[in-house]
Amino acid sequence: EFCDVISKDNMGGGSSIFTKQELDDYQELTYFTKKEIHHVYKRFKSLAPNPEAVTKATKLSRDELYALPEIKVNPFKDRIVRVFSSSGDDSMTFEDFLDMMSVFCDHAPLAIKIEYAFRIYDFDEDDSLGREDLRKLIDRLTGEMKLGESDMEQLIQAVIEESDLDNDDGLSFAEFEHKMTKNPEFVTSFRIRM
Amino acid sequence: MNQTKQAKEHEDGPMHLQKEDKNEVEQNELRFRRTSQAAILAQLPSRQTFFSEAGFTLGRRLSCIERRKSHLHQRASMTPSIAVGMEDDDAEEMVMANRRVSHAVSITDGVKSITDQWERTQSIKAMVASIHTKRKYRDEILQEPVQRTQIWKYQQKKAWQNFKQQTKNVLYQLELWSGAFKEIEGQFGTSVMTYFRFMRWLLFLNFYLMVVMLGLTMVPYVIKINRPWSFLDSPHPNNTGSNFTGDDFFEKALNCTKNYIGFLDNQTNSEDWGSKALDTLQGTGWMEHTVLFYGTYFNKTYSLPLVEGRLTYNMGLSYLLATGAAFLVSFFLLVKNSAKGVKSSVLDEGSGQMTQFCNKVFGGWDFCISNQKAAKEKHKNLTQELRGDLDNQKLLWKIENRTTREKAKLYSIRVVVNTVVLGFLVGSLYLIYYANNKLIDLQREFGDVHPIVQTLIQFMPSVTITLLNIIVPIIFKKLVEFEDYMPAFQMQITLLRTVILRLASLLVLMGSLYGMVVKDHDHFVDDCGNKRWQTINNTSEAPIKCWETYVGQQIYKLIILDFLVPFVLTFIVEYPRRLVYQKFHERFKVVNMMGQQEFDLPKAVLDLVYTQTLCWMGLFFCPFIPMMSLVKCFIFFYVKKGTVLNNCIQPVRPFRTSKSNSLFIAVLFISFIISCGPMTYMIGTISPSQSCGPFRVYSVENFIFFDTIRNLIFTFPSDAQKFFHIFGTMAFFIPAIGLTCFFMYYYCVQAVGYKRRAKLLKEDLIMEGKDKQFLLARVNEAWMYIEG
To answer: pLDDT tens for residues B567-586?
Structure first.
């Protein structure tokens, strides 16, 4: 931790990567402090195949992004990359990456995490978490060992019973939000620490 | 899916073919209805807000502002155009098109003054859009013409926000151990990390306690400005030399102190190096007269050369106030921490069975995990947990269908188990009490034996407590399985029973010490504030000439043991167990059955709580105890981190993070209140020793600790005295209690009212949802009619 502090200081002193305006912008538009932004940039650089030639306009492809440890083992990695990629083709620029880390950081409020979580879990992108979405979600969660068919049905039925208020056999965003604001584990699990 | 369908066809023959066709037709209809419904749904205002780049939360807030500020002007753009004759692809396209429609509400709505402008730019952070888009909107807002009124208000707000940001930056850098936390989190997830966070919180608590206690007691003591350096050098307060009566308390204190110091010197001078080392462990001998214990402190009266008269540092008063301040600080920090837990648990209405599935499915994956092995474990655990919960649900259904006979049998089993548990508790407590008393007999018998044996005998009560604390919880865990509770409740009830055991054992220790210190004894002379001042009949029982130091020594021994035993156990049990498992688990079945070490979270937390309780109980008698707890926390962090990362696997049923944190704080709070009890009783009723400590000079015959404060108040002007006297009377107490009860009742009633309102609103929502479905179906019918 002390080494981190020292290196952060060094970076703050002679940073030529970002102009002051850009740093201020990022600080205003994301939930990061200046030091954290530098740290995020460092991690972004480490993912590129050629770290020295990385600029702000560099785009990382999907496979390069998958090299980030937290994303690599995440069962929703393809959805995360899809949701945060501004060009929609699963590639991310530094700003996309910064945006993603900002949503996942500690300082981001619950509301924005819930919105992004909904988008990530919505596999078929029909703006509601239907039975198929839930099925895929549970499949991803269980990993290699799958739940039996009857167990899966019981689970999906239980989830829908608990949260579907308007009887449309799926979770709309309002219902999802309603449930997640009351879920104290959500905020602690939906984050990535830099 | 298609393959299985075909297989089924072959199996079941032509009869079932028609059913299958029917199913398919129904499915198709459903799909068609859903798609056309989707087209209508996509035009609902709520959906439009969700699609907008502002995102749902921000968009919702903006539309409220818009509604408030311009309710006269209806927005014409809200009426959607109904598309007729939708097919699958068209509907999808419409959904996608709506997605790209820019905001239904403008981000610049309601921005009038420069403060508004600044606030709106701050809220841009919450937009669900890329940084590029956010920048665009931010520039849009900044370009809007605004009235530059009340600039000072805006500047103030901005300065305050900057200041907050700066302090956050600084504090974040200073955060201790954040790198270690990340490592543990990556491998074990957040539930194990709450234990380490709790440890860090306790570390800081102990740090504050240490600063308060040592700053007010030890530091003034060791400052050697001028004489006196020991009580015997202190000048007599009535130095005029007149009016010395036989009842002079100062003279009495001097004599008692001389006697005590003589006695101590006798003991220490006849000891060799080995005994001296043993004394370090026990806190006796040469350690008794150091700043470690209460005994050496005294009221210092300086005669400074430049100042007329004398300067007295009232050590007694500062001692009492330091203890009081330490407890207040602990109380304040505890309440602050538990408030966080209460807030989140109030939100969790209908907790337990009702919401567990949603929570697990959506919040189950810990995004912090960064390690392949840990991820595999997490998958395995999640599957097991989900399966376990589904089995639980089936169990619940079974419980509802339990016959009366089964219920009766179960309840009788539960009563039996509870009695057995109670029996164990009482038995352990009696064992501790017995050990304490046996100590005296043993001392008598083995008075002249080798000092090491003597040390062992001295440690007997502490060892009994520690052993019981290890063995009995294991028994509790086995017993609770007979009671057939839901697993989460099983864990809570075992935790509760273990907590009762630990706290009760401490209370019994306190009780037996009380018996020693306050009751009269046959073999002893009562003098100088100590009931066991001198022995009659030349028994070999040691007299206690300074009972506060004696109590401090007992607690000191407990703390030393509490530090050594887990430390040694970690290295003797946990590391070898891992090595044994690694090498032998394929060959020997027994090793495989025993399994790997699981991190026992409740036990670890209870250990921390126990240490902290010891710290609170011993504060008064041994001001260095917070520092010892601090060192223990610090060292144990690294020891536990090492053992967790190297030796343990993830717990099979991880704790729910938020609930566990509030549980830990609740247990800590209970221990705090229990350790306050003996302290307050002692300060209010027992007389201090006259041979040691800052209270040795009495001011009245039956002096108690609290009289120090009373004497202080008597030195105030009489109006201030009257003010303080009111605090002690009933006229203050009873209305204060009444008012507090009233406020508590008011807040409880309010909470009940809110819960009821939330329930009603939820029912309203369900009704509205049903209305929406009905209307959608009608609109759909209308379309199909028009079309067809």
So the answer is: 888 888 877 887 877 777 77
Closest chain A residue to B137, measured at CA: A29
Across the interface, do A29 and B186 touch by the CB < 8 Å criterion?
no
Of A31, A147, A158, which has the smallest distance from its Cβ to B125's Cβ? A31
In tens, the pLDDT along B304-338 reads 555 556 667 777 888 888 999 999 999 999 998 88
Cα–Cα distance between B216 and B540 in angstroms, integer? 39
Give the C-alpha distances (Å, rounded to integers) separating B117 from B110, B140, B206, B681.
Answer: 9, 11, 46, 60
Tokens of B535: 């022995």
Collapse the DSSP code of B766 into the 3-class scheme (helix H, G, I; strand E, B; otherwise coil) and give the result.
helix
Instruction: Choose among A30, A154, A165: nearest Cβ to B125.
Output: A30
Contact: A145, B380; criterion CB under 8 Å: yes
| Token digits of residue B764 | 């309203």
Q: What is the pLDDT of residues B581-617, one digit of tens each?
A: 777 777 777 766 666 777 777 788 888 998 999 999 9
User: For residue range B444-484, what is the model confidence (pLDDT) as tens digits?
Assistant: 676 666 767 777 777 777 788 888 888 888 888 888 888 87
What is the pTM for the complete model shown?
0.74
**Alpha-carbon distance A17 to nearest alpha carbon in chain B (angstroms):** 18
Please report which helix (H) or strand (E) contains residue B500, including its range: helix B487-518
Chain B residues with beta carbon closer than 8 angstroms to that of A154 = 390, 393
| CA pair distance B599, B646, nearest whole angstrom | 11
And the tokens for A89?
């083709």
For residue B165, the chain A residues in CB contact (below 8 A) are 33
For B175-223, where are the alpha helices, taking DSSP H only? 178-188, 190-213, 219-222
How close are the terminal C-alpha atoms of chain A, in Å? Answer: 12
Token pair of A166 as six digits: 């308007």
| Residues in A touching B124 (Cβ below 8 Å) | 28-29
Place of tokens 């009659």: B536
Helix (H, G, I), strand (E, B) or coil at A129: strand
pLDDT (0 to 100) of residue B77: 39
Domains and CATH numbers, chain A: 2-9+18-104 (1.10.238.10), 111-189 (1.10.238.10)
Surface of B (530-569) touching A: CB under 8 A: none
